[in-house]
Amino acid sequence: MLRKLHGLPGLLVALLLVVLAVSGSILSVVPALDRARAVVPATDEIHVAELAGRVVAHYPGAEQIVRDLSGQVVVYFSEDGQAGADRIDPRTGASLGPYQPSPFWGWVKNLHRSFLLASPGRFMAGMLAAMMGFLCVSGVLLLVRRNGGWKALMQPMAGTGSQRIHAVLARLACLGLLLSAVTGALLSAQRFGLLPEASDSAPAFPAEVSGGQPVAVSQLKALAQVDLNELRELVFPYPDDPQDVYSLTTAQGMGFVDQSSGELLQFQPHAIGGVVQHWILRLHTGEGLWWLALLLGVSALSVPVLSVTGARIWWHRRSSATPCDSANIPDADMVVLVGSESGTTWGFARALQRSLSQAGFRVHCADMNALATDYPKASTLLLLTSTYGDGEAPASAGRFLERLQAFQPSSPLDYAVLGFGDRQFTHFCRYALRVDEALSSKGLNPMLPPELIDRCSVEKFCDWGRQLGARLGVDLALHHDPVPPATFELELVERVDYGCAVQAPTSILRFRMAGAELRLPWLRSSGPRRLPAFEAGDLLGVLPPGAEAPRFYSLASSRSEGVFEICVRKQPGGLCSGFLHSLKPGDTVAAFVRPNPGFRPAADTRPVILIGAGAGIGPLTGFIRKNKARNPMYLYWGGRSPTSDFLYQPELGDYLEDHRLTGLSTAFSRADGGSYVQDKLRQDQKALRQLVETGAQILVCGGREMANGVRQVFDDLLAPLRLNVDVLQQQGRYLEDVF
Ligand SMILES: Cc1cc2nc3c(=O)[nH]c(=O)nc-3n(C[C@H](O)[C@H](O)[C@H](O)COP(=O)(O)O)c2cc1C
């Protein structure tokens, strides 16, 4: 519900909000420009009597002095019957030039306030500001739910593409946007009388004035007690009218000054309502607070990006979450229920539904939240669900467990749960496991143990399909291509082979964009720009000929190096690794890049502990290579034999020498007294504990078994600090890339 409330109004008003935000950003530079042009004396340097004396010397016909919040002083005067206004230097009273509000700024202000449409436009702008406030609040609540709590809001954001950009930007900009929105809506509400009028009422004109001979304004003692920086406005009395008075407005209040005695008369402090109104205006416009104005302006610039990414998320969710040809509940003999937050699981569900329908089943497909109380003809219930937050339900399954209590199947039901998640999270597929438990406690028959799919592995999905088909007695060939990737052609330029002697053939493969040399010489400089953006740790998807699904390899290089470098261990019977190992320089492969922003060292100076085994060294070497700032980096790596599969040995020696790498510890299982990387970690546990105490981040890359062993070692060595891997993971300080 909250998601719908956030998404739909956002889409409808996105364009108008962009106009409001961009014009607001442009206006946000005005306070800084005004401040740069203003001459602002120190406190106690000039008092108002002094200023007024200087003004009168330059402008005998002075009528009013106004000091705006940025410090600009403007004199309004009449000369030879003509009215004029000049900006002045308060230190001399001399003119700095005529005061002429710019037509450009006036136009932008008008666009921002009312879309150039006078009162109806102003009303619309006010409504939009209120709606932006609502989008900020609902967006933050969604982020909290998606990430698993308020604390998680401060941690690195998970997700990819538009989702991630939207979340990261919204987190940065939401406070600024909220302040602009709330103050804008309040200003509008005041203008349209929806809030009580809070402006100051002026004090009554003094009943008695001395009426004596006026003295020079520079001699008036009440004005001599007001610092210039406190002044807002001084209105001069009518010439030759001894009964008239000076009207004085300061930051504290309003009053009058007798032009003969110099006494302050009828001074009235600003009413609280007036002060509130003044601050609402200042917090919205940033007047006199140029730094705040610029911060608000920068926040507002996020609105166009948030609008575009928000629309893309909405479109992706909508197009992924539309079930096709779903049978009605009373007719269905097979029910597929889907728990999804951003729609990916729906893609898998549709593939399953297609295959089941082709196999002759009448399949009802719906959100898990739409669980009915009974499916009278159904014999099988299949649940496909992702996990969000800190192991919680995704949006379309949030009410499933509650609804399950009222679920009363009229005939026995078999069920199977397929979980979608990401092993980099502490609670991998936890919600799917909870659903499985709940269904089992409800007395349904599990036809398969729960299967958990890491990062949308199509391979695993197809395996599960085969098992399910076997249980249903049909041939269930599932085909699903989650996001059809746009591939490019890579040409192998170099390979370095290791490990054959110890039955662990592993190669470092370096590719470049195919066909680069065919470009015309004068276009050669555009070469690197043709490469997609990628960093060490991102994934290279490779599609071997004849394969339906890509295989992913962690990149050891980044775009600035101009090559795609991966480290590949040949798996027995492995289609893709076998294909890659058969390549000779000059051969080509179809590939694409998938960002993996969750597996990167933090961009700060804290120590980094890199741990890997076998081909897992690839991205870790990439991180060391990029460590030009020489931040402390320690590598623990395990292989089989120092003479056969010590991957990157020469490079690592160079990095130790030039201090990109601070320490290297290797473990070889087939050398004398064979050891594993976990043994090396245990040996160094004291030093590692100290590094963690100083804020170190840990990145682990390699096989699941090694990663589990490393987790155990860290859980043990962190115990004296009352810490464990789960906590570090929640703080974004323990990252795994496991295959
Ligand atoms: C903010 C966020 C939190 C996540 N939390 C978890 C989690 O706790 N456990 C897990 O296994 N996967 C987690 N994931 C990964 C998703 O479950 C996974 O990407 C899934 O394929 C998304 O499917 P959907 O698009 O259908 O929601 C999280 C992803 C994001 C973006």
Automatic annotation (TrEMBL):
EC annotation from Swiss-Prot or TrEMBL: 1.6.2.4
Residue ranges crossing the lipid bilayer per the database entry: 123-144, 165-187
CDD domains in the cross-refs: SiR_like2
InterPro entries noted in UniProt: FAD-bd_FR_type, Flavdoxin-like, Flavodoxin/NO_synth, Flavoprot_Pyr_Nucl_cyt_Rdtase, Flavoprotein-like_sf, FNR_nucleotide-bd, OxRdtase_FAD/NAD-bd, PepSY-ass_TM
Domain spans labelled Flavodoxin-like: 334-469
UniProt entry tagged with the keyword Isomerase: no
PANTHER family registered for this protein in UniProt: NADPH--CYTOCHROME P450 REDUCTASE, NITRIC OXIDE SYNTHASE-RELATED
Name of this chain's protein: NADPH--hemoprotein reductase
Record organism: Marinobacter fuscus
